Structures are given as C-alpha cells and as structure tokens.
Amino acid sequence: MPAVVDLSQNIFQGMKVYPGHLKTVIFEHATHEETALRFEGGFSFQTTGFLLNDNGPTHVDSFSHLDPDPAAQTIDQMDLELFHGPATCLDVSHVAAHTDITAEDLDAAEAKGGVQVRPGDIVLFHTGTHARYAGDPRYLTDFPGLGESACDWIVQRQVKTFGVDSPTPDNPISKTYPCHMMCRREHKTHYENLTNLDQLIGQRFTFFGFPLKLVGGHGGPTRAVALLD
After folding, report:
1. Which of 30, 31, 70, 188 has a C-alpha 20 to 30 A away from that of 163?
2. CA-based torsion, 90, 93, 99, 104: positive or negative
3. Rounded Cα–Cα distance for residues 130 and 193 (Å)
4. DSSP secondary-structure letter at 170?
5. What is the pLDDT of residue 2?
6. How many degrees, rounded to 5, is the angle at CA 188 between CA 120 and CA 214?
7. pLDDT for the residue 156
C-alpha cells in the first residue's frame, strides 16, 4: 500500500497566522444536550463553528491574492491541475533566518537529495520552520525566504507550483517580497504553512493539495498530502 504523509497543520484557536490575517476562532455551536430535545429515540448531534482567514492555516494562494488585476482568478476559478501532480522536496533547512535562499542553495539541495526537479513538478521547500517553532511566536518571524535568484530558478526549472513550511516563501524582513512578485509576474501559485516536509526529502511522490472551493476567495485552506510509492 502507498504511504500517505499528512502535510497540513492542525487548525485550532491560538494557532499562529501571518501577522494581520484574521485569527482562527473555534466555538461550540450545538451540543448533544441541546439537540436531543428535538428528536425521539435517543438521537442527538453536535457541531462546531469556526472563523478562518482564507490565507490562515495550511493554504494555497489564489492569483487574486497576488495580483491586483480585476481579472486575476479567485481560488474557485483556478484550474485544479495546479493543485496536484508529481512532486519532490528540497532541504534548505540549513539556511539561516532572515537570509535569502539562493539558486546555488537550491542546486546544492537538489544534488544532495539525489532527486532531479523535472519540468512541471510541484516542489516543496523544507526550511524547518514549523518543526522548530510550531506554537512559538518565532514561527512568524524567524525563517529564511526565497530570494530573487531562487525565484528565477523556479521559473527556469519550469516548476508548476511550490510550497513552504513557513508563513510565507519570502524573507520575513523583506519589504519587496520578490517571491510573491515573481508569482504575480509568472502566474504561479504556492502553498504556505505546510508541515512534515522532513519526511519527503530526497523522494519523489504525488502531491495533492485541493483547496476549499470558496467563491471569491483569495486563498484556499487545504488538506495537503503526499502519496509515496
């Protein structure tokens, strides 16, 4: 049987979300005690309500999130082909926080991992951020980002979609966000807040990360998984 690796973070009240985004709120909506009064024979149910930012938990950005053009697609309009396919994972967890990951770093990670990035691949970048700082305020501040040369590498290697285990693929101290600007220019999207990428280094797998079909949404909360042969 193929192995499935869960790449999605838990969703809970108090989880770390990108600064300025709506915080996750979870509340009890209906209880067994309340609903039992509506039925006979012992049946009852319970439900939970929640508020999420469309770019809050593990998610994929819509083109409209990246691009102010009114014609930019919202998450429900984007092609499902972007959200699954052959994939691999590169380890850049040695790159220091607040520095740029370079094209040379990606070449070295590819060589060390022993897997080749192929045109049309989905590529996940293991920065180690979630493994180090899950639940810690540093999760939002202390990680590296894909610099301009790394962004050019993604384009030149014809990567279809990519993802990171941090709140943004850009360096958190950057004021220009070259990675998001590349995505706008090249019409690429990416996943943020992934986890368990350390389990995928040096492997090829099939990635599935279908977002919620949120009409007009600028991102899609996602249950992302990797299917290993």
Report:
1. 70
2. negative
3. 8
4. S
5. 75
6. 110
7. 98
- The bridge status of strand 204-208 relative to strand 25-30 is unpaired
- Integer angstrom CA distances of residue 64 from 48, 90, 188, 218: 30, 27, 11, 6
Helix axes 148-156, 103-113, angle to 10 degrees: 60
Secondary structure (3-state) at 137: helix
At CA 56, angle to CA 55 and CA 57, rounded to 5?
115
Structure tokens at 226: 């990797």
In this prediction the pTM is 0.96
Query: 3-class DSSP state for residue 208?
Result: strand
40 vs 1: CA distance, rounded Å: 43
Query: Residue 4: CB partners within 8 Å, gap ≥ 6?
Result: 225, 226, 227, 228
pLDDT at 154: 98
Supply the pLDDT for residue 229.
Answer: 79
d(CA 106, CA 150): 7
Positive or negative: CA dihedral 208, 209, 212, 217 = negative
Which pLDDT value is given to residue 216? 98
Query: Whats the size of the chain, residue-wise?
Result: 229
Q: Are 99 and 172 in contact (CB under 8 A)?
A: no
Q: What percent helix, strand, coil does the chain show, rounded to 5?
A: 25, 25, 50
CA atoms within 13 A on the CB side of 212: 17
Ranges of residues in the chain with a pLDDT under 70 are 1
Is residue 118 helix, strand or coil? coil
